[in-house]
Design a protein that fits this description.
The complex is a heterodimer. Chain A is built from ten helices and 28 strands. By secondary structure, chain A is an alpha/beta fold. Chain A folds into three domains: 78 residues, Roll (Ubiquitin-like (UB roll)); 226 residues, FAD/NAD(P)-binding domain; 120 residues, FAD/NAD(P)-binding domain, CATH 3.50.50.60. In chain A, strand 18, helix 5 and strand 19 form a beta-alpha-beta unit. Classes of the chains: A alpha/beta, B alpha/beta. At the A-B interface, strand 6, strand 12 and strand 13 of A face helix 7 of B.
Amino acid sequence: MRLRNHPILEFKEQRVIHFTFDGQDITALEGDTIAAALHAAGIRTLSHSLRRHHPRGLFCAIGKCSSCLMEVDGCPNVKTCLVPVKDGMVVKSQDGWGRFPSATSRKDYQRKEIPTRETDIAIVGAGPAGLSAAIYAARLGARVMVMDENYLVGGQLIKQTHMFFGSKDHYAKTRGIDIGTLLRQQCDELAIEILTECSVIGYYHPHELAMVHKRKLNHVKAKAVIIATGASENMLTFPGNDLPGVYGAGAIQTLMNVYKVKPAERVLMVGAGNIGVIVSYQLLQAGVDVVAVVEATPKIGAYQVHASKLVRCGVPILTSHSIVKAYGNESVEGAVVAQLDNKWNIIPGTERDVAIDTICLSVGLNPASEILDQAGCRMLYIPELGGQVAVIDRNMETSVSGLYVAGDVSGIEEASSAMLEGRLAGVAAVQSLHGSSPQIEKLKHEIQSGLDALRTGPFGEKTRIGNKIMTEAAS
Amino acid sequence: MTRNEYDVIIIGGGIIGAATGYYLTKREQRVLLLEKQYLGSGSTGRCIGGIRAQFSTETTIKVAMESVELFRGMEDEFGFSVDWFPSGYLFLAYTEEKRQAFLKILGLQQSLGLDVRFVEPVDIRRRFNYININGVLGGTYCPTDGQADPFFVLKGYMLGMVKGGSNVKTHAEVVGIDHHRSDVFEVAIADGDKFYASKVLNAAGPCSKSIGEMVGIDLLAEPERHESLITEGIEFKAIPMIVDYRPDGCYFVQRTTGQIIGCYTPEVQIPGTDTGSTFEFLTEMPRRIIRLIPALESVAILRQWAGSYTITPDGNPIVDKTDIQGYYVSTAMCGHGFMLGPALGKLMANFMIDDSWPYDMSEFAYKRNYQRDTEVLG
């Protein structure tokens, strides 16, 4: 089902197109991904698990998990959450792995040349960190190329309908979706090349990347590389967590705020951090009933102002509560929640049933740092930063010279700090190319002070601890 | 026996150390296995899991056939599946010279009881209709060759060792071996602990040369880099291990979990223990796979990595005792450690106790002529 009206989102005229799913005609709007169009048509089961053939639905919606794999125009194992739908596309569900493709008619194998693209600074990820890095590097005269797996530019900003906090320099009082547009405009003004539907699958010394653009392999040669790949959402362990209808909070946001699909009727939100509380409010804006927010810890993690807004709308936030199980046949039909004691054990007798069709998990993020590990960066597991991160210095540089990081991949924070880290990595990467200058030193100092300022106060505590652990380990 | 005294100390936590430790433990030896990093972190955990008995010399064929039998019995022995599957090995000849060489070796293999046959291009076409047989002059096919999961196999052996009262110590890098008393070795690890045994087995694969040097033994065993990749899973067609013998050939198999996994031997050897990956391999390997199975063109690559082959000049392993009483070596598997490991583990365990081999093992002797004189199916 599609949203028809919304207090914030704008509705533009979109061309109606048609494709088939397992032989059935599906009506979609141009700009939908395959997975979003299927959701709009009420299809939630996208694949089946390999061993037990359990139904699987969308979980991340941004190409990080693999529960939406389908055969598209004869090509097996396509992540349908990343691929925009086209008129006449033939989409088929897979039972486990994809069908063995039929042989091509070609008798003799032809060697294909692999296109090489050269640039000064290659940036992986077109979210707030990657775009900020691109803008600052390009302003200092570097040739920049940005690559992103998704076909829309802006990373997670494109679904953030809420206003940001902080100072003017951090785009305070501007909605995330508008910040994304602003950054995009600045990139266009600087003639920065942004490639979408583009997965970087390998890093090779020195500063060469293997990149798959619309399923074709490319070779990228750069003088410096900035990794700004963001994060993936954490899963939570409970019976029934693999049912279609259990989503990461980001996936819910993508469906409703990017593709304007009404993702549910009645939702149970798990996790009362900023994302959980903000997405709950956004669900209300989309006309979805949020029955409750459960939070396992005794206190609400989100900013008070967000939490209060939600409570004023009549949504209970149950602290020291968690989900016990989800149930349903093809999809979520309900869940059991219960109260926890101070040792995280369920208090017997407090279990209760909630009638819902969707469970939204907002239980933290995990840095998408695989490529840094593959590149040979020194890695550390720092829970305060969300998981495996590369050891970096004050300039965002990893142990591999000329390889930088920015944003959530360097440790989970917010978009505001991601943008500052991006700027810093962008400036530092240019410095590695052309040497230092008073202008560069001044810029770096300003950005570093800005980052320090963002991380003061109780909400910056985890990052401060995490960074301290890293500094100690590095020395 | 005190806490740090053992019957045997094994250096190296790959398939060779694990299998030998397992069979020693079964013969009531108390073993300590020391591994520098984690189990399988050297060559075993990086191998693609192929198992074959199609070799070109008598000893290797016998050992490999014994290994296949052991792999077959592992599910019963360990109580869990090691994903053993007889997918077969298909060797392809593209030149008349190679075809003749295959035919010659076939006789030896069959005389030792191996179920292996010559296949004409038309047979290949009939049985594996997805293979592009352009230019193929024939091949050999052995249906009892197969594959297994190296991690499950290691797990089975290690659990068996521990259950039998032996010890496995990971993240324990051996930094010195003292042999000033002729009947006992003192093995020191990086954190300062010392262990004692009257017998030591060097099963350190790529590191075996330096472990040899610790007692003054020079092993002709040099590591070189081999790269591999694995694709995403695809409908299981039981694609055998296809070995393309052209200079720009490759070898790959479909795992029982659907993925295609494979490698090629670089034309110029890359010596050393660097296990980094290259863009060249990423582009070249899929080309070679698609040339053989065009339908795989739309299957995406999931991961690439590299591992070490520890090589001797004649392409045969070194499995023997040495000039130093009590110091044994089982290393330099030349890329065949996983497939030969179970049988070599059993043979070496018995040899360390009985001091005799059940058949001629001089091909693998520590002291031998290392010049390559026969063609080796490598």
